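Hi P.,

Sorry for the delay on this. The queue was packed all week, but I finally got your sequence through. Input first:
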Amino acid sequence: KFTFSTGVKAKLQKSQDRYNEFEYIENIYAIYGNIAYKQEKIDLSFGLRTEKSVSELKDAYKSPFLSFLPNTTFRYKLSTKQNIHISYNRTIKRPNIYQLNPYTSLSDPFTLSKGNPFLKPELLGSLFLEHNIQFNGNYFASRLFFNRTTDDINNLMFINDTNAFETQVQNLGTINQLGLQFSGTLKIGFLTLNPYIKIFELQTSGNELAKYYSVEDKNRLCLESGLSAIASLKHDI
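Then the structure:
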């Protein structure tokens, strides 16, 4: 009833721009493990991934970054058609090469943009409680969720010393989402509909840099929705 797995991973990367002598090196080393328990009504797992990354910009700086990324999930079968699911996981999102390259791009004499080689990765945490039910080939799930992003990477626009609009990529603070999500699969004849709707409170909290540039904190109610459909015709079309 128990399963244990573990592993190691290494990623070595060098990015170069021959035109402005940009050279960025990022080495990532990870070790991870997961233990799972499963029986007729209970499905439980817990894992942890530890990553150490070393970022280096040639002739500029060298920055190590250690992150602990847990993940856990618990699923309980209420009946043959109903389940309760609780999950928490933490992931990391690293800036891409275009965001890191400090090259200055001029759109016009009054507008310029540049990357930021000192960007830190985003850390994303997600916690949810979900109930799902199946009936007559249909599926419906309701979820209470909380998402948190720290060191959020975003564009910061300001007027620089030359009175031009300058856009830089920066870590600007924390974003929280707390709300409800409803999703499902509904079969009507040869059509299969997959709707979803999210209602959540969005809170942003800027760091010192955001406050320096007068970026205000936000607190607002948001709505997100979507719908996809599949038509299943004859002859496997």
